[in-house]
Design brief:
- This protein has about 230 residues and is mainly α.
- The protein has nine helices and no strands.
- It is globular, with a radius of gyration of 19 Å.
């Protein structure tokens, strides 16, 4: 097995296994800012383990799409973690690491989860799916513009080339990249369901988007969705 394939597998597994640890750190920072005692940084691992050991409860009106959507979302996020250059640029999936393809992977995961939320026909699921589509309608074109700003400098839409070009250029303050960084921060707030766009810690009808879409999920299906979100 070539070194490129080994690095590719290592990067993908590293991103999947350490993602809950990052979420644990985020939860700790939120608790400290709110003046509360912080949960253990490994709490997301415990929550996932508990969910995987539970029996799934599925509505009688659920179609196969409802059961398939969590696996599709997790697969899309794992693929995105694999093609984004993290530990090296010359990986086996480097030719597929195109910014347009990356945004398309995110959109595919969002569409499947939105369809699954509307599949059972509950008001909360439909409400959350419609709100999520509105957020994606605004966020995904902006995300493409952020990537295109960097691609115009590197003359390529491939992430490895963009990373290599910006890493080896002389340090310079590009106003376009500064504005793109601000836009990327705003997009990340929306995409990760954070305040003020969304509040993942509430079940109030007026303030939830992502949580409304996954209210009908439980056990392993909910664990896969949560893990993909991490």
């Amino acid at each position: 097995m070539s070194a490129g394939i080994l690095l590719q597998v290592a990067q993908t597994l590293l991103a999947i296994l350490l993602a809950p640890l990052l979420m644990g750190w985020v939860n700790q920072c939120r608790a400290w800012l709110q003046g509360r005692s912080a949960p253990p940084i490994t709490q997301p691992y415990r929550s996932l383990r508990k969910l995987f050991h539970k029996d799934a409860v599925i509505a009688h009106t659920a179609s196969p799409l409802f059961r398939f959507a969590p696996y599709m979302k997790f697969a899309c996020m794992a693929l995105a973690a694999g093609i984004v250059p993290t530990i090296a640029n010359d990986l086996s999936f480097s030719p597929a690491a195109d910014v347009i393809a990356l945004v398309g992977i995110f959109a595919l995961a969002r569409v499947f989860l939105a369809l699954a939320a509307m599949d059972i026909g509950t008001p909360f699921g439909t409400l959350g799916a419609r709100r999520d589509m509105l957020v994606s309608f605004l966020a995904e074109p902006a995300l493409l513009m952020v990537f295109f700003t960097a691609s115009l400098i590197s003359q390529s839409t491939e992430l490895p080339i963009i990373v290599a070009t910006l890493a080896h250029k002389a340090f310079a303050i590009h106003p376009s990249l500064a504005f793109a960084a601000v836009a990327f921060w705003m997009i990340s707030v929306a995409e990760n369901a954070r305040i003020p766009v969304d509040n993942p810690g509430t079940h109030l009808e007026l303030t939830m988007i992502h949580e409304a879409m996954i209210l009908e999920y439980s056990a392993r299906h909910l664990a896969l969705i949560e893990w993909a979100g991490h």
